[in-house]
From TrEMBL:
Membrane-crossing residue ranges in chain numbering: none
InterPro entries for this protein: Glyco_hydro_28, PbH1, Pectin_lyas_fold, Pectin_lyase_fold/virulence
Signal sequence region: 1-26
Protein name in UniProt: Exopolygalacturonase
Source species taxonomy: Eukaryota, Viridiplantae, Streptophyta, Embryophyta, Tracheophyta
A GO BP entry: cell wall organization
Amino acid sequence: MAKKLLGLLAHLHATVLFLPVDPAAGAMYNVLRYGARPDGAADAAGPFLRAWADACLSTRPATVLVPPGRYLVSSATFAGPCRSRAAVTFAVAGTVVAPAGAGGRGSSGRWITFENVDGLVVSGGTLDGRGRALWECRRRGQSSCPTPASSLTIANSRDVVVAGVRSVDSELFHLVVLQCHGVTVRGVTVEAPADSPNTDGIHLHMSSHVSVYDARISTGDDCISIGPGNSNLWIERVACGPGHGISIGSLGKQEGMAVEAVQNVTVKTTWFTGTTNGLRIKTWGGSKRGFVRGVTFADATMSGVDNPIIIDQRYCPTTGGAGCPGGSSSISISDVRYVGVRGSSATPVAVSFDCSRSNPCSGIRLQDVALTYRGRPAAASCRNARGSTLGLVMPPSCL
Ligand SMILES: *[C@@H]1O[C@H](CO)[C@@H](O)[C@H](O)[C@H]1NC(C)=O
């Protein structure tokens, strides 16, 4: 009896040992087995890509595992489509570091890319973009700076989850969602200095049904930027600061798109601390057509924010207007609600609607807004804006 039991145990043990997988996760592809070295010095791009290629060929759900340690990756594109329609997971426990020095991440403007991977999950880990050298090159105004690279790009994919990723010091945007449908971004942290240029936290572009939950973003540009071609977005529980706020736009400048549209966006429960903007919509001047409609900003807390609520249809980031198109914007903005926005402005004007002369804003709704400047009611400023108010609204509405 005892012998039989031992035999059974041995069999179980062997089964567990030789199972190449965690049964729940499916097949497991550890980058160490592909020759990656966790020393932060040897380029692990090749091993990462070979592990990915095998995972992507798996007919079962598959996981590429990056164990604890530092891995240098020069640049990598993890491409699909993969054979398993179920899911391919890229699970990082360690830190992935970009090359030291500016550039060196390929010339495509992207450091790490996933494309054409339906059912992708990217989880955990730290991405260190080491952007400092490039920012300094740009700050010195050198014309020969290398093309800056966004740290993580998810492109042309459906049903994607990005969870628990920490991204620090990207040369350009930290996380880009490009031409995707059905993406959940959960528990992402972004850390870069307040003076780092164009280091947006999360940039959404031409995507639909994207949700962002529980993000903590400190950076030198927009915490979240919503570019053209986005619809059906849900953004909830975001702490932003330092940074330039949560922005729809800028719209109206891109080459190539006939009409630039953003619609059905909810931004709920946000905290802005010491940011230049809170809730912003920005469009360039000029004849580029498009619209922003169906936006709800609900439950926002401002602490020392320069422009807590702002629509800027003469957006021009350069001083003196160099390189900015003149004329009034042809992007029409309608049906935008602000519900439950409170806290302190760092400037006298806390609510600013500077809308297009040729395409005035319509359907702007302010409800339960309480914004102060130095402990007193702040001011509001309107140009070409129409709408209504409900409940307590302070500063008094100029709509
Ligand atoms: C707006 O977007 C949300 C997702 O954020 C979606 O659930 C809802 O159905 C969309 N509404 C319309 C009218 O498309």
